[in-house]
User: Fold this.
Amino acid sequence: MKCNLPELRRGKLKSLLNENKYIRVMEASNGLSGLIVERANRNGKEYDAMWVSSLCDSVLKGKPDNEVVDFSSRVKTIEEILEVTSKPIIVDGDTGGQVEHFVHHVRTLERMGVSAIIIEDKKGLKQNSLFGNGTEQILEDKLTFANKITRGKEALQTEEFLIFARIESFIADKSVEEALDRAETYVDAGADGIMIHSYKSDGEEITSFLTRFKKDYPDVIVIVIPTTYSKFTETQLSDLGANVIIYANHLLRSAYPAMLRTAEKILEDECCEEASNEYCLSMEEILQVIRG
Ligand code: SPV
Ligand code: MG
Assistant:
């Protein structure tokens, strides 16, 4: 593994963003998925950074994605990933919590060697953004949220740690104008960039936002999470102006059916021979994963 000291890792994200039209980020939710993101390579292509998702961190604990998994627990997960990887880490900071707590949390993450946090402009009991219609998604007052961003930036000790503002206007069924207005407010408040999200699969809200926002703010980083509008390729998203593309949950979502299939196969057979041979890594291979 390459060097993973905090002071060497923290600034890597900023450098990558300066050097590339867009970067590719994959979810890492524990040491093992961190290793997968660190090592995955196909035709010379790799992931640039890791996303520590609140959804995946919650699912792995069997809990809902509503901030019940608290910051101390999130820090433990992040530590686990930092320990065995060297790529930069972007943390999903949910709403950021109370501003008085947020200023401490950003300093903790900065000291650990995390490169960025994204916080979302929702309030009340946070629910996952893709929960679907019927889930009440309440937006925070934009100036209150902007103040959280400003206070977070002021609390930092380096220029390397980035704070991104996630706009949930589309998740709350608001207009593109509403989202653009919030984006302007958050950039003015000192956000290092914007994340824009949508639960719709046609990607029209995202396309419209990117096109209009980038006309006025060509140099501001925009992050997208194409979970629902998954047909969009990286090239298409980048051509629209996206600078960071996050695959937010795909390792965990693919692991679950694989684990369930094995659990059910052993129940069916009352024996593990076939499940081992058909579905599992050999013991030799799994031990190679954690080679020293
Ligand atoms: C997460 O991965 O926890 C996110 C992205 O916040 S989403 O689940 O799409 O809201
Ligand atoms: Mg989340």
Notes: Residues 53-55, 65, 92, 94 surround magnesium ion (ligand 2) (CB under 6 Å).
